[in-house]
What we know:
The complex is a heterodimer.
Chain A: E1 3-10, H1 33-61, E2 68-72, H2 74-83, H3 85-97, E3 100-102, H4 119-136, E4 142-144, H5 152-160, E5 165-169, H6 172-175, E6 184-186, E7 192-196, H7 198-205, H8 220-227, E8 234-240, H9 254-267, E9 271-272, H10 275-281, E10 287-288, H11 306-309, H12 312-323, H13 325-331, H14 334-343, H15 346-350, H16 360-364, H17 372-397
Parallel strand pairs in A: 1-2, 1-8, 1-9, 2-3, 4-5, 5-7, 6-10
Antiparallel strand pairs in A: 6-7
Helix pairs in contact in A: 1-3, 1-9, 2-3, 8-9, 12-17, 13-17
Chain B: E1 3-10, H1 31-34, H2 37-63, E2 68-72, H3 74-80, H4 84-95, E3 99-101, H5 118-135, E4 141-143, H6 151-159, E5 164-168, H7 171-174, E6 183-185, E7 187-192, H8 194-203, H9 216-224, E8 230-236, H10 237-245, H11 250-263, E9 267-268, H12 271-277, E10 281-282, H13 296-300, H14 303-320, H15 328-338, H16 341-346, H17 352-376
Parallel strand pairs in B: 1-2, 1-8, 1-9, 2-3, 4-5, 5-7, 6-10
Antiparallel strand pairs in B: 6-7
Amino acid sequence: MTSVCMYFQAHQPFRLRRFWPDERSGFFRYFDERSNKEIFERVAQKCYIPANKILLGSLDDYKGEFRFSLSVTGTLLEQCELWEKDVLEDFRQMAETGAVEFLDETFYHSLSSLFEDKTEFVEEIKEHRKLMFDLLGVKPQVFRNTELLYNNTIAKLVSDLGYRAILTEGADHMLDGRSPNVLYKAKGSGLPIIFRNYKLSDDIGYRFSARWWEGYPLTAEKWASWASGINEDCVNIFMDYETFGEHQWEETGIFSFLQKLPGEVLKTRLSFSTPIELVEKYSPVAEIDVGDFSTISWADMERDTSAWLGNDMQRRCFEEIKLLEPFVRKTGDPEILNIWKHLLTSDHYYYMCTKWLGDGDVHSYFSVHSTPFDAAVNFMAVLMDFKAQVFRKLSVIS
Amino acid sequence: MKAVCVCMGVHLPYSPKWYWPVEGFFGVPEMDRYFDRSNIFSKFLKTSRQFLRLNDLVLESIERGGRYSFDLSGPFLEQCRWDPELIESFRELEETGSVEFTGSCSYHSLSSLYPDPSWFKEEVILYRELLRELLGITPETFVNTELLYTERVGKILTDLGFKCLIAEGSKNLMNGYDPVHVFENHLPILLRHINLSEDLELRFSEKNWQGYPLIPEKFADWIASMEGDILTLYFNYANLCLHYRNQSMISDFIRTFPEALKARGIEMLTPSEAVKKFVPVKLLTLGTGQTIRYGMHNAVGNHAQQLYLRELVRIGEELSTLKENSDYQKLKQVFGYLQQSEIFFSMNPGNIRDGYERAVNYFSILSDFRRAVLEEGA
């Protein structure tokens, strides 16, 4: 029997405000309280609340036969606590069913896994782990990194932290003709890897409402029949949770698709499994080798790090933030440390991406900046001010 | 028109390099951390040879009755130390008695826009010393960076003893009229005639321009046909080199322009002579307006420029508390060059992409510099 493994990624960053060095202090000197709250509330109304309701309904209807996994970033959970506790309550209910597997990731949806020094990366994973236990009472056993960034070193670290599997993108250039529908293991650590089936995932996440697409209109029945055509171990369907109601608006029929999907899948020869269940059911068939300089991700067509570190502005901002780490730590100031960690959130760098064609529209999604250049200047302005704050603090200490 | 005043701006910026924080956030920065001086030097060498040839032409023009003024920028004068021959050549021009050298901001900065006027004053005084040291003269006329004018500039310069100011004759000040008088607000002010200056500066070698070829007689005719006391032409000296390389007739123009004017009864005057000779006219907009070449919005209009300006002001405040520190002079010099107006203008080249990519670089530089200042204050 083939397993359908569905995983949804729920994330909201704390976006920067259009920076001007005024009298504000603390976290909201840099981050935009009003627009983040507005965006969060909009997405909660359009996506999280209705999608949660449908999924909770299906969990109830199919009593353990419908299973999926969810990863929620620390920054989104922080926003839920600040602005909409009902969403948090939904996640808690999901956890209680036992049919939803929560995954771990970095608290801040950050790029810290790309630092040579992995101290911060490990720290952020532990922060997320603690948050998941404190808020939802779960202890995740499977890891997914920010935007599915993956290489051997990341796998090794994750394995050392006790995780039993890792999720990543089934990037063509890396699989090189091999199937994403079986498990692999990481070179070095032997950690099981679950690869995303990007074709069947993007049919929902990306092409669902595309009128140019021959698959349009996509029904749950049609999709289930495609998926059931796979005779290997697993079909791994990973996508943003915001697909439901936000990337694909309610008017496209995405919610009724989501509603019908469990039933249609269960009518076929397929069954649902969560990542940890895949690892228990199936064995890795081969080893995968991804060196540090060939890091993969699920972003854009390139499926690499170029969405965040592709141009000079992005690399410079990243370099600056990286160099600041020891000084931030030396201040011993929890507020400064917290701001720094939130500046590692990948979205800030994504907004600066200049790969206009095709992917550009996705990049500008949810961005508060009019162009990637505005985003970069604004980030550097924040950084310039924040850096001064760090060194002022240090000069007082010494 | 009764008279013409020609002022030539000679400037070579000290451009920041494409900086990368290879040193980490550490140490007191030397100039070389942010500026590629070998690159600046090689650019200077190339240009200084051309300036020498131009100076010779101006000498010939003076022998034929020309009178000129020069606005040598601070960063340019500092670079001139690399080539004593060039300084000597400007001295020769000075010795003719037909050339007036103007005062300027020593770092070619926009410091007159800072809330604290002492930065501007200090630069003016510093530049005056530089000019005294290199050319042995004390300027009476002032040209602010890129002809920047604000009301307070006039006030400060009067207090510092200047007798004349040259500023941009922009639309918001002139309201459609040609600036053809000596104006006054605190001190006498000459306003640049933008169109006619740009004929020489930009259009001179353009073959499809309707004024081409611009011969001295034609240009003098245009001027003679205008009613007024004094016409002020100001243009970048380096642009004349450009025309020179384009094999245009710029040499002939420079040589014989004085004679063409004289034939039409028009005098050539230095700025100081002009303000002595003509009775100043009131211009109300000088009390309220601001102006700069290329417009204030191109200098400090976008988010990046506003942020950079604001950051300079704050660093200036922090730096002022370090006057007793041993590294103060070193930091002060670097800070000076980080204030150059080119940095501002290049963040807004009409193309947000190039401008903002540069801005990100400049912010890196400035934030490292501020780091050093804050560490020094510890």
